[in-house]
Putative heavy metal transport/detoxification protein (Sulfurovum sp. enrichment culture clone C5), 92 residues
Amino acid sequence: MKQTFEVENVKCDGCANTLRKKLLNDFGEIEVNLSVLPRQITLDIKDEDIDKLKETLKSMGYPMSSEKLDTIDNITTKAKSFISCATGKFDK
């Protein structure tokens, strides 16, 4: 079923490129909407795979907006997102 999720720390095409490439093998094609805040990703996903997606996004520095992070996790995910973004800019 196609579902849309709000994702934090997605700033640019580099971030979107990283999301599309890193999630492709496990989750298939990902659409990234950079025209809204918070940013949105849309993909065809089963409900039982959402927790895996949530953990994968967080490990890349792009937690779902619905996830409440403590201060340390918030800082950590922002730092990871900068690295993921830079990787996405160079890995086209």
